[in-house]
Amino acid sequence: MSKLDEFALIQFLNHKKQSEELQQKLGVIKGIGDDAAVVQHSPGSQLVMTCDTMVETIHFNPYTMLDEDVGYKALASNLSDIAAMGAVPKHALISLSIPKHYSSSRLKKIYKGLYECANEFEVAIIGGDTSKSPKHLNISVTLTGEVETNQALLRSNAKVNDLLFVTGFLGCSAAGLHYLLEKQERHLTSAKLSLDIQPLVQAHRRPIPQMKAGRLLLESKRCHSLNDISDGLASEAHEISEASKVGILINEDMIPIHPTLRAYCDLVGKSPLDWILYGGEDYHLLGTVSRSNVEYLQSRFQRQGIPFFILGEVIDQKGVHIKDQYGNIKKIQKEGYNHFN
């Protein structure tokens, strides 16, 4: 176990445990290895399914998240997986493991946030499970969605010479987490920084799943591959690279940096690039599009008021590479948030 990272563990537990024939018989179109699974539902549509878990002390603690935010983010992280497939969310099941010291008023706040997210994105909460937990709260969400038959956006269709894009600023969530931890440990405050830190805190506590962007990309029929950024740009770029059997070249000069992120990094002596590449929990969408269709997508996104930034390109050479401001190119590893590293 100690020698396996999160992705290797998934492979270790699941590889060749079921035959392709059985999965095909049961309607599996895309199983383990993408943002969500896709199974046949009806002649005109396919079912998209995902699940995600938030564990107290691992994903949140009382200093980094309010109770309402825990509920909101538990569903939002699942919605991001559905968005990355270009699907429409439908139904959610909630499993809750509750330690003895949690009061009913705290649980009510968690569900307040959960339902805020569900109502905002039109998701029906239809059931789940509750159990006791010996020490910490665990909340797990299983979410279904629907997508037109054979239209789901996958990680595996990037083409050499495609351009790499992202639908928002990265690194803000990791910076927000850093601030919240520093505030607790060293009494760092927004006033001491002379900076409005709320954009970073909000990015961490209440990420906005890119549902509209995902549907726009699917309906445009121009997007070749898509992934959501939960573990950092470096990790997600590697997932597209590996699934599509291509390389990714990120141009450092083209990476957008949120002004508040840049200002905060200057004040605390951190590099924005580190949080952008390896921070995670941004929940924007990372994808590829052919050069001939970039202007079309940029125009569509601009009309909808959704950010759309070009970061680099798809290349022949396998792996993920980054070009710095001096033109030097180096390979970057699949690093980012990983539960077992």
TrEMBL record:
Binding-site positions, substrate: H59, E281, Y337
InterPro entries: PurM-like_C_dom, PurM-like_C_sf, PurM-like_N, PurM-like_N_sf, ThiL-like
Chain ranges of the PurM-like C-terminal domain: 160-322
CDD domains: ThiL (cd02194)
Family under the similarity heading: Belongs to the thiamine-monophosphate kinase family.
NCBIfam families on file: thiL
Protein name: Thiamine-monophosphate kinase
Organism per entry: Chengkuizengella axinellae
Protein's gene: thiL
